[in-house]
Amino acid sequence: KQEVTQIPAALSVPEGENLVLNCSFTDSAIYNLQWFRQDPGKGLTSLLLIQSSQREQTSGRLNASLDKSSGRSTLYIAASQPGDSATYLCARGGDAGNNRKLIWGLGTSLGVNP
Amino acid sequence: GAVVSQHPSWVICKSGTSVKIECRSLDFQATTMFWYRQFPKQSLMLMATSNEGSKATYEQGVEKDKFLINHASLTLSTLTVTSAHPEDSSFYICSATLAGGPDEQYFGPGTRLTVT
Predict the structure, then answer these.
(1) Which residue of B has its CA nearest to A89?
(2) pLDDT (tens digit, 9 = 90+) per residue, B55-98?
(3) Which residues of chain B from 8 to 47 reach within 8 Å of chain A, CB to CB?
(4) B93 contacts in A (CB within 8 Å)?
(5) pLDDT tens figures, A92-102
(6) Residues ≥6 apart with Cβ < 8 Å to B111
(7) Using the beta-carbon criterion (under 8 Å), do B91 and A100 form an inter-chain contact?
């Protein structure tokens, strides 16, 4: 069974701290790995997409890495801000017969305190 | 670019009635759209994959006669919850991928359905 696990489930940090969110997945034959942000009661915002042939992607203060051999991805947030407070979801892409199907983790709820 | 809208953003309906939710790609053509539902404190659950002009592919356990999906054009997919019951109350989110583009999914803002 394909599963995606995110640790920690919740995290609270003071403003300015650098932090790492973890995502692990079974089955290394993934198509891609995506990180999303969800604000309460809202839809999802795509943050970073890493193709299976890539090792990392960067966007502003965000950096996501992918290690297929160990079944892990990390999302690094530099110099956290209160506006970063949200739930962060990772999803692995790729399923037999449907490369675009996403398997989701439960998310990490992040609170950044001013 | 790559904006997806949903309408309505929230809806309250009585048990036994049907509700239609629209998902539109505003500035791109989407050959594939996905419908998800999300319960409180839980992650997204894929309900079905919808390709323009063809029948939707439903995930195991999702009743196709209850959740009717129509993807009549490259910019519009609809989800109709038929004979809604309180247990259908949930947050429904759609996503779309660009025709001929990368696999990144662009998500709508979601629709909160409450069935009384």
Answers:
(1) B43
(2) 899 999 999 999 999 988 889 999 999 999 999 999 999 999 87
(3) 32, 34, 42-46
(4) 43-44
(5) 986 655 656 78
(6) B6, B7, B8, B9, B10, B11, B21, B91, B92, B93
(7) no
